[in-house]
Amino acid sequence: MQIYRTSFAFRNREYPIGSGKALQFIYGSKQAKTKGGLTATTATTNVYRSEQFKHTMEDIRSQCCSPDEVIFGPDCRQSLYCHLLCGLICSDEVQIVSSTFAHSLVHAFRTFEQVWEELCRDIREGVLSSRVTVPAMRAAVSKLLSPNPGLADSIHSKCSRLSDWCGVIPELWPNAKYVYGIMTGSMEPYLNKLRHYAGGLPLMSADYGSSEGWIGANVNPSLPPEQATFAVLPNIGYYEFIPLERPEARPVGLTQVEVGKQYEVVVTNFSGLYRYRLGDIVRIAGFRNSTPELQFVCRSGLTLSINIDKNTEKDLQLAVEAAGRLLAEERLEVVDFTSHVDASTEIGHYVVFWELCSEAAEGVLRGCCNRMDLSFVDAGYVGSRKAGAIGALELRVVRRGTFQQISDHYIRLGGAMSQFKTPRYVAASNAEVWQILCGNVTACYFSTAYSL
Ligand code: AMP
Questions:
Q1: Res 303: pLDDT
Q2: Any idea where the GH3 middle domain is (predicted)?
Q3: Ligand 1 atom nearest to CA at 216
Q4: Within a 10 A sphere around the Cβ of 257, how many other Cβ atoms?
Q5: What is the distance of C-alpha 271 from the center of its chain?
Q6: 362-409 tens-digit pLDDT
Q7: Is 244 exposed, middle or buried (0-12, 13-18, 19+ CB in 10 A)?
Q8: What is the Å distance from ligand 1's center to 217 Cα?
Q9: Measured in angstroms, how far is the CA atom of residue 209 from the centroid of ligand 1?
Q10: Ligand 1 neighbour 181 (Cβ under 6 A)
Q11: Which atom of ligand 1 is closest in space to residue 278's alpha carbon?
């Protein structure tokens, strides 16, 4: 709550808001009881369920448009539909459009493109769509709904006028001041699409935290998300930093980090009960009032590697981005992506899975596959490709909706939609996700980049 308030203070200085509401795409997840009788759930669910959350949201003028029955509904798809509906009903009051991670925002508006006419119908007739079947959610949202043909017509005509949904957020929520959520790290690939939906509205990257402990606040909210930094709040946890260049060295303290260097973050929570390696790499961008400002670099976990090659999540992201520029020329885009190392044959190769917004011509995809292969510039990879010690990169295109199936899978296991991050590497041992991917492949292409 403290970090929410701190970053709001900085945000409000740049973009002041009056009293109003927030269209927040937030979702609680399942709760379970441990053998000892404790309630176990995800961090965001604990936050949303706490009494303090409501008070904090009121204080920082970010009260959610949707009732609790929507936030804590058992079916995220129904909750998303209701969030959109509640947001439209209070469209004049909405000043902030937000979610925890940018992925949920993009997912929400991609869904809006599919369901907007149904939403208009609900508002026109004052009757909730039959797709919402959870009784408590139906009852709570129906209470907010009454026939409003004027609003329905206005939404309908605004949507019909938009070109490819560009600027849909400011069009439908004319008093929104900004779009807010975590947009750094593995959320960067969604920024293009989010900018498209946000039109001229500023995108503001939210704070840096984790279930294990919050870390830093974005105290320069006017910087574009690509340049966002996070000032560590030293009173909310105990932080240590493992130098990336000397992982065997002892971790250094908060004031001993050096500007420009990269570290892995270790957090010890309030109670001192655990000390946890987050698996995140950060760069020290500078100091502010003696506390370091961190720039998120990437997760340390994913490394595509076959022999001497080594590519991180960031390298994968850059390769997909480079190939994505070829798609943009065709007005196409990558909805989501992940990767895999196929070592089942004598000479292993990288596999990249893509979900596209619509069908692409074979020639374009072949070009993208080659571009990705050439975009992994790590010397170990390039050398091995030239020497034939790593096989041709393979692009596998999957059906529309595949990545939604993957997120549904994690949510069924008790994960939180609000915390969902697409896994950027999937091993065959992750059997269910692997099957979802392989069962949805519609086309495969092998790079010819190094055989020319
Ligand atoms: P969770 O595992 O769901 O608790 O999410 C925590 C992880 O999300 C962190 O360890 C980071 O990898 C990622 N994360 C959280 N905040 C940010 C941020 N502002 N920028 C980039 N990644 C973030």
A1: 77
A2: 231-299
A3: 19
A4: 22
A5: 29
A6: 999 999 999 999 999 999 999 999 999 999 999 999 999 999 999 999
A7: middle
A8: 13
A9: 6
A10: no
A11: 10
